[in-house]
Design brief:
Radius of gyration: 27 Å
Oligomer: single chain
Number of strands: 29
CATH architecture of the largest domain: Sandwich
Number of domains: 3
Number of helices: 2
Shape: globular
Structural class: mainly beta
């Protein structure tokens, strides 16, 4: 072969080698390019990585400013999957969002949020999304985001693809019990009569289609007896759901009503229905017929004019928050009652400003960890008028109840019950409705 031919072949080989390198580089960039979700016009989320274990250290990112604040690491009690997300936001106005975890077949979804945040600059922070539940039998799963703003809720078009760190692990399979299934706690007998996963929500959810798992719920119903007599003053309020793979979530139970009549109960969210059984730990709470030891009545609680920030000050134990007006101990739980605050807030149902009186308590320990519930029974003003509860923010030892009150009120009288819950457990098959 002539030297010219050899040189020509060498040139061709070099050209094709260069093309191959470019192709491989492009493929590598495509495979390892950052996963990004544009949440809205001003907010961008970037997947930084995932970590499975008990000690979690925030990723170190290059920045022209000093790390601004927040934890640099945190620990979890058990091995936990943490998804690290960089949030960059151009707007000063910030709205909330929730992570939604789907299996690849989109048969179910659970939610989570950033429980630990480290700010790296004014417009960016690293968010640690801690997953108590994810589809552990799948190799990969999806993470989408539901954002909230003044126009409502919106499900992100994009999503992250997360590799499962426990894929291939052996999990046992639980066996469900047939329905109806009766379990007892003391003289209270609770029968689970109906249970259906992936049932339609009893209301229309904006931002998702009706076939999206985010528009589904779990429907269930109970028969309740005390001392072998049917009763109506106990109801399910909360449920812990777990499966054999180690998933565990807690959800509040709501009444399922049609035409003004209760047809049963429902909750969001369920776990993945490919499991043969879920375990339910249901909290039953009394609604009336309380013991005298459960009750506390306080009269002439002063009401002062204020704003929403004054209410938030109680949550943060700010120094400018008022001292407790009264305190007592009920069923081993120390309860503080603070002066009430009257302020104007927006009614989320009609969008109008509403004048309300906020009644605020703190407990130590928090009632829920002590297996108890706080129930406000009656609230009257200084003119003897009954105020009706329009909403509540509570949990973790902080309890605030709002009562519409159009006129200026000088004082209120309050009766509450702090009462013990009963717990029953069931093993159920997550059957379709």
């Amino acid at each position: 072969m002539s030297s010219g031919k050899i040189q020509e072949n060498m040139k061709r080989g070099l050209i094709w080698s260069g093309v191959a390198i470019l192709v491989l580089a492009a493929a590598a960039w495509w495979i390892f390019k950052p996963q990004v979700v544009q949440l809205d016009r001003t907010t961008k989320l970037t997947l930084l990585g995932v970590e499975y274990g008990r000690h979690h250290k925030f990723p170190a990112l290059k920045t022209t400013t000093r790390m601004r604040g927040g934890p640099t690491s945190f620990d979890t009690t058990n091995d936990t999957l943490v998804v690290w997300v960089l949030q960059e936001q151009k707007s000063v106005q910030r709205y909330g969002w929730q992570a939604q975890i789907y299996d690849r077949a989109e048969t179910a979804v659970v939610t989570s949020w950033a429980r630990n945040i480290h700010q790296i600059r004014q417009d960016a922070d690293v968010e640690a999304i801690q997953l108590d539940a994810f589809p552990r039998r799948d190799n990969k799963f999806f993470m989408r985001f539901m954002s909230y703003d003044s126009r409502g809720e919106h499900l992100s078009k994009g999503h992250f693809v997360i590799s499962n760190p426990v894929r291939g692990k052996f999990f046992e399979k639980w066996t469900p019990d047939p329905l109806p299934n009766t379990q007892s706690n003391g003289d209270l007998a609770v029968t689970l009569t109906e249970f259906a996963a992936n049932a339609p929500l009893p209301y229309v959810r904006n931002g998702t289609s009706k076939n999206d798992p985010a528009s589904k719920c779990v429907q269930l119903d109970f028969d309740i007896q005390q001392k072998r007599q049917a009763v109506t003053n106990w109801r399910p309020v909360q449920v812990e759901i777990s499966d054999a793979t180690g998933n565990e979530i807690t959800e509040y139970i709501n009444e399922y009503r049609q035409n003004g009549q209760r047809e049963g109960y429902f909750y969001q969210w369920g776990l993945w229905p490919n499991e043969p059984a879920w375990k339910l730990r249901v909290e039953m709470s009394r609604t009336s017929g309380f013991n005298d030891d459960d009750l506390w009545t306080m009269q002439n609680i002063p009401v002062r004019a204020g704003n929403q920030q004054d209410v938030w000050n109680y949550w943060g134990n700010r120094r400018n928050a008022d001292a407790a007006f009264a305190e007592t101990t009920i069923n081993g739980v120390h309860v503080k009652l603070f002066p009430a605050i009257q302020y104007t807030t927006q009614n989320y149902f009609n969008g109008r400003n509403t004048k309300v009186v906020s009644v605020i308590f703190k407990t130590n320990p928090d009632a829920e960890s002590a297996g108890m519930r706080m129930t406000p029974l009656t609230v009257t003003d200084d003119q003897g008028r009954t105020l009706h509860n329009q909403g509540a923010s509570w949990g973790g030892g902080d309890y605030q109840y709002e009562y519409p009150a159009s006129g200026d009120i000088q004082s209120v009288n309050v009766t509450i019950a702090l009462h013990k819950s009963r717990f029953v457990e069931f093993a159920v098959k997550p059957a379709q409705p």
